[in-house]
Amino acid sequence: MTLPENHVLLGTLGRTFQLEGGLRFYALGDAEAAAIKELGRVFIENFGERAVARVRPVGSQLIVYFVGSSTPQQAQPLVNADVYAAKDALPETPAHYLDLLLDLPVIVDGEPFGEVVEVIPAGSDIGQDVLVVEAGGREVLIPLQADYVTITEAGVTLTEPPEGLLELNAD
Q1: Could you count the other beta carbons within 10 Å of the beta carbon of residue 82?
Q2: What is the structure's pLDDT at 125?
Q3: With 0-12 CB in 10 A as exposed, 13-18 as middle and 19+ as buried, what is 45?
Q4: Which residues of the chain have pLDDT under 50?
Q5: What is the pLDDT of residue 128?
Q6: Which residues span the domain enclosing 135?
Q7: Beta strands in the chain (DSSP E)
């Protein structure tokens, strides 16, 4: 099943949770976690569009329940599937949808520098989201939440980045 155009990756479904067919949801970032709580429908990789019955927080995790999956056996096939949302259905948020940052141009002090090729979401080992920028045949890692990074629809702008940051990953 092919992913429809204009969809944004929100995260991945994890193991089933308890007996009501809930699935752990691992959001890419804060915007994606907030979006899954508000969306009525999502697209699940290899399974198509599904209606979201409810989302509830359990500790630091989100548990997602889908219409038609009311037992662990019904939910089990969805484990490890990626979850997407239609771009035009995404709620507005001050945070950035990480998937929408891919392919954006990167400008450093007003000059073209490179392009975002990957976003490494914050995790237990990483304190914040990291942009992987392809620049001149090499990859440079940029911390997304740094105060010198600005995101606009036109791209990612770095204003006076720390000395040496852009050379750290040089070959």
Answers
A1: 15
A2: 58
A3: middle
A4: 124, 168-171
A5: 78
A6: 101-163
A7: 7-17, 22-27, 41-44, 48-58, 61-66, 82-86, 105-108, 111-120, 130-135, 138-143, 149-152, 155-158
Tokens (6 digits) for 113? 């520098």
Of 76, 78, 89, nearest to 11 by C-alpha is: 78
CATH number of the domain to which 125 belongs: 2.30.30.240
Give the pLDDT of residue 158: 92
pTM, 2 dp: 0.77
Looking at the structure of the chain, the number of domains it has is 2
The pLDDT, as a whole number, for residue 94 is 72
Is there a contact between 153 and 139 (Cβ–Cβ < 8 Å)? no
Place of tokens 């484990």: 79
pLDDT for 124: 47
Say which residues have a Cβ less than 8 Å from residue 161's Cβ, sequence separation at least 6. 108, 142, 146, 148
Statement to judge: residues 107 and 157 lie in one domain: yes
107 closest CA partner among 167, 171, 166, 170:
166
Which of residues 58, 90, 122 is at a domain's end?
A: 90
